[in-house]
Amino acid sequence: MGPVPLILYRAIGVEGSSWVSDDAVTVHEVRGAPRLFDAALIALHRSPARLPETKRSVIDNFYESAKPLSGKRVLIVDDDMRNIFALATVLEEHGMDIVWADNGREAINRVANDPGIRWVLMDIMMPEMDGMATMKEIRKLPQGRNLPMIAVTAKAMKGDREKCIEAGARDYPAKPVNTPDLLAVLRAWLQQ
């Protein structure tokens, strides 16, 4: 279990002393009601896609204006170019910078040599070096110790989620990936 999330709300234009995160508490300072609503959803691990339309529109409008994922780099690791293309298309619509690898060894090399990577979307079922072995190797790199890696697989079997988390994944959506849920996961890890 990680640190307790603390959301510090300040009205726009109001200043005060800043709070600091530590091992027990992660402090997120927010300004404005839409940002407070978003931070609460992230802290509770709730997807905006599951909200009623009126509440979801508040979050959608906030994301449209704030564009929190824009310019952030994500590494997509998959041996099937169709999957890379599908994920890249969705993420590029949100202004993300996409890099990709079609095998585990190339993914390890990219993480080792590209400090701009903010997340890794990792296919689990790959020949030669599967996603779990790749994540374990990435975790050994200084750049990979705290890098959010999200396991993505089409063949979700009982116990696979736990194995992926143990190998270093921070989350585990199954294919086909639900776009709003994936975006919510990326935004949540952006807060960490």
UniProtKB/TrEMBL annotation:
Gene3D superfamilies: 3.40.50.2300
Annotated keywords: Phosphoprotein, Two-component regulatory system
One Pfam family linked to the record: Response_reg
InterPro entries assigned to the protein according to its UniProt record, in alphabetical order: CheY-like_superfamily, Sig_transdc_resp-reg_receiver
Transmembrane spans: none
Phosphoprotein is among the record's keywords: yes
Domain Response regulatory, first and last residues per copy: 73-190
Residue numbers of 4-aspartylphosphate PTMs: D123
Record-given protein name: Response regulator
Source organism (scientific name): Ramlibacter terrae
